[in-house]
Amino acid sequence: MVTLIDTLTRSPAELRHPEKQNRPETAVLRKPDWLRVKAPGSGQYNATKEIVRSKGLVTVCEEAACPNIGECWSQKHATLMIMGDTCTRACAFCNVKTGLPQALDPEEPAKVGLAVAQLGLNHVVITSVDRDDVADGGAAHFAEVVRQIRLQAPLTTIEILTPDFLRKDGAAEVMIDARPDVFNHNLETVPRLYLKIRPGARYFHSLRLLQQVKERDPNQFTKSGIMVGLGETKEEVMQVMDDMRSAGVDFITIGQYLQPTRKHAAIDRFVTPEEFKAYEAIARAKGFLMVSASPLTRSSHHAGDDFARLKAARLAQTGR
Questions:
Q1: Where does [4Fe-4S] cluster 1 bind (predicted)?
Q2: Residue 74 is assigned to a ligand binding site
Q3: Topology adopted by domain 35-318
């Protein structure tokens, strides 16, 4: 009974992020006009929400408090998050719940495949929490989700946004051999800020994961993204671009970090739309096939349209 009362009196932030409760609160800065979006609530948004609820799906749109949820759900686009809603990492920027997850659901891959088929999606993005508690980091489970989508929705193109599978030997190969159309893994920030922003990860391991994809299957598109506004310098962002290109990354996304709660990492500043345009020009000059750089850019935003443009850009460059 004592535990129940304690749970009921705790705030939602405490329930989602117990590891952050001893951190000092930081001020949440007022958003500039270019970051304001309409509150969700259209008829199609509500219809998508009902589909998500009725099928018991978890979406990163909700779990990560994405600012684009109104736009995407109104267009019947949703990024599915597998392997539960609880992450074993405690990144300072992320709004996904942290803690000890439940066991993997062996029926989940078939359920996701069926849901994608019933939704009639042309392109689907599948992401997941980190599962450091599982021997292979959940790679085999993730790969089975891809296989089930191929089986039940063969015309749907698949983009995966994976964990880093740190210290999980052989996991990367399992994911690459699942042969998604786009293999996405986000570097998130510049190397100098990893200990503060992404303490459970290692920058060069994440970079190496992206490089492995191209080495094992050169035809797979690779994609990675970072957030800005965390205290990085322009020169550091440009160095990350060079690192990505050295690893063969095709598509870079750059978006503004938005602070989920006062307990999360503080925003250093709001990067202006003009600065994002400059980043886009620099990235294109460095040879990326695709660049998405804007305050509201997120990894999965407009993913289907971007995939079509990505294929067209490769065709124009290589003829295949």
A1: 61, 66, 72, 300
A2: no
A3: TIM Barrel (3.20.20)
